Amino acid sequence: MPVRKILVVDDSATNRHAISEMLARHGYRCILAETGKEAIEKAKTEKPDLILMDVVMPDMDGFQATRAITRDEQTKHMTWTAFRRRAPSRATSRPSTFR
To answer: Count of alpha carbons within 13 Å of 5, Cβ hemisphere only?
Structure first.
């Protein structure tokens, strides 16, 4: 079955927006969740084809939410992937100049 509906789970509104905009440009329908608990509920009600889950979130992290989703009879068949955003690295030194 082709992937058409994707549940994007991230506690960062900026990340949710960026990911969903990118996916929408490629024709995917996105459902958004801010927390692990919200992801579990939306997985049950929306029945997405794929779940993109942030790993580091307050209250319930992505691993805990995914564990709950994969243990539930209604949602255990769903495909998911976990990700972790990293802060952009800052250069600590200036580039050397050639003489």
So the answer is: 10
